[in-house]
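Sharing a chain and its predicted structure for anyone who wants a worked example. Both blocks are below, sequence first, tokens second.
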Amino acid sequence: APLYVVNHGETGPIRCNRCKAYMCPYMLFIDGGRRFQCGFCNCVNEVPVFYFQHLDHMGRRMDFYERPELSLGSYEFSATLDYCKVSPYFSPRGRHPGTGLTNVNYATTLSHGPQR
């Protein structure tokens, strides 16, 4: 089956400010959903306004199952125009907007779901 593609538009994927990890099921949302704690380096990051979602009674985002990057082990992010401009994987003759994808696979580590 094809992987779900996550597209955050021109801003690109949500990432940790410190270690640059991509948004994934290991990120812990805190402060009513306004911030998230990185599951890799424990850095607390602000959630962009367009990505904000309220938390349920268990501290999980209300859109948890609607977001592949939060609920699935494998998914892809659409590459931004800036990524396509500077990426060494594209033709030196020019950029190819929207053709690059970043594959994130956490399937082997998520057999029992994220640990909180």
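Comments welcome. The radius of gyration is 15 Å.
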